[in-house]
Amino acid sequence: MPNDYLIGTGIYDVTGPAAELGMMGMASIEQKTEGIHSRLFARAFIVCHQSSNKRVVILSADIWSCTLTLKMEVVKRLKSLYGPDIYTIDNVLLSGTHTHSAPGGYSHYALYNLSILGFDKQNFECVVNGMVQAIKRAHENLAPGKIFINSGNVEDCGNNRSPIAYEQNPADEKAKYSGNTDKEMILIKFIKDNAKEIGCVNWYAIHPTNRGNKNKLITGDNKGYASYLFEKEKGANIHEKETFISAFANSNCGDISGNVKYGIPDLTHDFIRMQEFGEKQFKKARELYSSASIQLNGSIDYRHTHVDFSKVKIEGTDNRTFPAALGASMFAGSTEDSKSEFGLIEGIKATITGDYPAGQKNIILEAINLLSGLLTGFKVPGILEDEMKNGHKPKPIILAQGLAEPYPLSPEILPLQIIRIGNLVLLGTPFELTTMAGRRLRETILNILKSSGIDSVALATYANAYAGYITTKEEYDIQHYEGASTHFGPYTLMALQQEFGKLAMAIKDGKTVSAGPTPRDLSSEQTNLQTSVVTDTQPMPWIPFGGTQTDVNSFYKAGTTVKVIFWGAHPKNNLRTQGTFLEVQRKEGDKWITIFNDNDPCTIYEWKRDFIANSKITITWNIPTDTKAGEYRICHFGDSRDISDKIKPYTGISNTFKIGESLAINEINFKNSFGKQVELWFYHPNDWLRWSAYSKHDLKKDEQFSWKVPSGWGKVQVRFTGPGKWKTISVGESINIKASGDIENIT
Ligand SMILES: [Zn+2]
């Protein structure tokens, strides 16, 4: 087979302001950044078909979603780097992983800056620059190579959070599938002809919401964690121009969450949940990567158009879409991932006249009042025409953001993009599709392109823009969270299938498509109400930036936690892109060697304001159990701003501390009389962040098992998945899981 592809990959830091910027996804005004658990990255893949010279860019970033303005600005900068024809809106696909723990403020539409308190130039610039740099690296790395495709199911990795809505779909349609979630992960692997492994990207449907709406530390959540594990195993280094990258992109996860299994995130268990769902994705990706043997071959092609979703006519019917509006249940929040700020519950349906149900009218009107208070400067019509009400029925409209003046609060002119690489087709959509909505769309496209040699259709969601959810018409009619958040009414999915179908037909027939209407440019309309750094002050004139407020102890055991508090400055002064706010160092000979930085999940950089302009920086290191004995220290890097606006870097260094050998190991004994396999999850009862403390054992039917408790623990908290109970157990105890599922101590 002639090898005809040039391939290249690139990665770059997109970690935005780590303090006092609203996080995007949970729509909570209180959820502002206060530190970093892991950095965020943009990962870019370029494929160029040499004989036709056609190329495509696929980029996935650890952010909530791409937006229209991010896409426009990235393409503009690529054009200034490479000329007008190499990278365009048509062949560049930019998507977000949908992490809910990353700073926001990079949309030009008010609805998506509401909880952020406006557009944030600094974060916008950070994300745009990171995306451009990742693509630039991929471009500079282009060389002949091969792409392999593989797919397989990820088991027990996310549940449907609106199963009642899913159940509304026709029985014969449901019967075609094994369940109410899509378990399939599709992965493509990039290997250069010189045998260098340069990365992989996969698409798998799950909400990265294990870190709930109380979390204030920046993290890529389960998808970012999966990327971290894979890249670490491959020895990746972001400072090299070419390194292995592994992107975990999202798919039709509209109704899929890992939290259904455990309930609303409580901040205490969020980290181990994230590890559970991140590890499952990582392990499957690694397995698919190492066993991939089917090579992608053939032409590269793409089509892109903008569609005005406020008025798509469904051909051959009298049905159409309508200007964007949100239903009352949207403000209930997704009951499984976060709690409503308004006290509403899901499933609120309109009366026959399209009005609010009597019992909930007051609380809905209260929510509207609160919203209009936040949306100063916009006129949102309070009394709607019957046509609009009927068009959205049975959704009781709580906010008709598509009719706002002087312009809509969320976009209606939206990009649809289809990319072909050999026999794989990728659909770039700005929506979050539910499981069944995604299946319908993929089936529509596969039916059109099957005869052209396409056998895989992957869904790239949160791509190129964002405009809410899409459910099936049947799911819409029951008005759960996802249905209430479907902006353009009950026929949105049909409109999407119809318009994507046109792009697929054009690919099939080798025809061009119209560019569609141009999205409005709102760059001059942006305001911002966030706190900014005026100046940083020292707590006392004689305490320098980087001085310690609370220093380390002199001795620690592996498996315990080191904490040091520095007097520092605001992280907005310098994002330290591609850098770090901290380093854990070990002494080797007379040199200090860095072993961890702020991207490693065993470290936490935390910022807190103290008085008016002092910053308190807490650095936590959960010492992994396999840490060598020796001398260690923790460094903090920051930048302070003085009254004349000058920014100066500073460094803080903790005292040196020793890590000693572990003490003797104790055990807890388990016996399983439950009658079937049980999962045991272990961790420290007081300190969930002790990542080394977490481990899992599959306790088979009738198995007896002794678990070695890490030194210095005393007690362990165990989750028994199966019987589904928690228990705190002391070292030396013997536990039996009875046939009834109850736990008993055997003496
Ligand atoms: Zn979502």
Keyword list:
12 helices, 9-stranded mixed β-sheet, 39 strands, binds zinc ion
Tell me briefly what this model is.
The protein is built from twelve helices and 39 strands. Strands 1, 4, 5, 6, 7, 9, 10, 11 and 13 form a nine-stranded mixed β-sheet that branches. A six-stranded antiparallel β-sheet has the order 2-3-27-28-24-22, with no helix packed on it.
Integer-rounded radius of gyration: 26 Å
Unique ligands = zinc ion
Please count the beta strands (DSSP E, at least 2 residues each).
Answer: 39
Percent helix range: 10-25%
- Which class of secondary structure composition applies to the elements? alpha+beta
Number of helices: 12
Biggest sheet statistics: 9 strands, mixed
The 3D shape can be described as: globular
- Low-pLDDT ranges: none
Query: In percent terms, what proportion of residues is strand?
Result: 25-35%
**End-to-end distance:** 68 Å
Task: Provide mean pLDDT, rounded.
Answer: 90
